[in-house]
Predict the 3D structure of the following.
Amino acid sequence: MLTLFLVAAATGVLTYTLLWQRLQRRDTAQAVRRLAVRTAGKENAGRGRPRLIEASGEVRGPLTGRLLDGLRLREAAAHLLEKAAVKWGPAGLLRRSIALFLAGFLAATVFTGNTRPLVALVAGTALGLIPLWYVRRKARLRLSAFEEQFPDCLEFIARSMRSGHAFSVAIEMAYREFSEPLAGEMRRTFEEQHLGQPLDIVLRKLSERVSSMDVQFFVSAVLLQRRTGGNLAELLDKLAQLIRERFKLRARIRTVSAQGMMSGRILSAIPIGVGGMMFMANPKYARFFIDDPTGNQLLGAAVGLQVLGYLIIRKIVTIEV
């Protein structure tokens, strides 16, 4: 049975590789033919993205790209990768997930002798979610670093405007003075405006890339000032002060809720400790949860309820400010 599974897995991987290479050659030829047609390029000049960018997107990852299009996940994956500043591309993210899923499934199948397909499926799923977890974690850390730098950036822009610089020049000076990730976002904002895009569109793109309430306030303040007038430098100073006060309040709430988080972690760790003690004290009794199908179901239900309880506790003690 194990040999049959290994042969099937190897055949599937080989078939995928050959089909991917064939589709890549075909799409490359199609892209070259499209680039060679100059008349179509002249008719569509100024609309959409450049043909070279479109061709590169068509050539790279044809199978995974079509799978993402079929599941309607390409835009969400691209948006998440953009937030995390990871240059994998949606197809690259899916390929990594599939590769890790197959590796985990194969390793668990070999380890269990192909007697626990559910365990192999869970192991493959856990490994397949690692790229998504990594991207989400990097996006969260990047957002946190951006929010820490943002009040200083607002005050810097306000001082630059008081000294006589225009708003766009202040943005340019900001990305030269600050470090990543704020510098990259400010540089992209300045370059998009410098290339001719309207300021309101550029700022809305910034708010989409950085999912922060502070950036939403900043964009709303700038756009409102452009319509109604007023002292933008003073407004940015007040916004920076408001953001700092919100950080202080968030730190106090985090301190108060730390006890609840610790209680949740302890309650989640108690069943794991009790299970380990059962295996050490009476292994024959505890192996019921591994060898017996009913024990497997009970163990799965217990783990699921434990995870659900921890998520509920975490949701209760997490207070957004």
Remarks:
- The two ends are 56 Å apart (CA to CA).
- The longest helix spans residues 232-281.
- Confidence is low (pLDDT under 50) at residues 38-60.
